[in-house]
Each structure stands twice: as structure tokens, then as C-alpha cells.
User: Fold this.
Amino acid sequence: MEQNYFNVKFINMLLEEVSIAFDAQELPLKDQTVSRWGCSDDFIYSEYLSKHFEDMLPCERKAIMQIIRTVINASCEAYFELIEDNYLCYEEFDRIDGNLGEFINRLKADETDC
Assistant:
């Protein structure tokens, strides 16, 4: 009988760890410039994200690094295409002063003024 190595719980754990690391390093990562084609993925992983995975097994860290490399490169390429098509809604979130709740409240206040 052949072993099935596809484990959704394992995948979700890896993705959750990646998400936590990106959230924790959001401020210093905002200063990083990555071109349309990525290419700074290993630097970003080693300088900013790898410390979040030190307690993991080597095979888990290897998988995480591959996931991060793919996420950075694929998202940069997709984001480039969005900007080229003048789809700028993601840009608005970078301009938020304060927290997201305050931003939502300002939008609601603007709606009631109409």
C-alpha cells in the first residue's frame, strides 16, 4: 500500500507559521523593495523571517523557506499586474493612519455625510 504524504493539517500549520512571521515582521519588511519578479526572497527569509522558525525541524524549515520564496515571488508578480491595471485598492491600506477600526469608522462617517 502506497503512503499518502498529503496532509492538510500539516500544510495549514506551515501556512499559519508563515503568516505569523510575516505579521510579526511587517514594519521592517515595508522598507524592503522587491521587483516585479521577486528575487529578494532568500534575503528576506534569512534576515527577517528565519528566526521565527528556529524551533522547527529542518525539513519543516526547508518547506517554509520554499513556501516563502513562492509567496514573495508570486505575490510580487501579481501585485505588479494589479498596479499596471490601475487596481489600487490594496494601496489604500498602506496609507491608513492609525488602526483599521479607526479607518472603518471614518469610512462609515463619510457614508452618513452623503
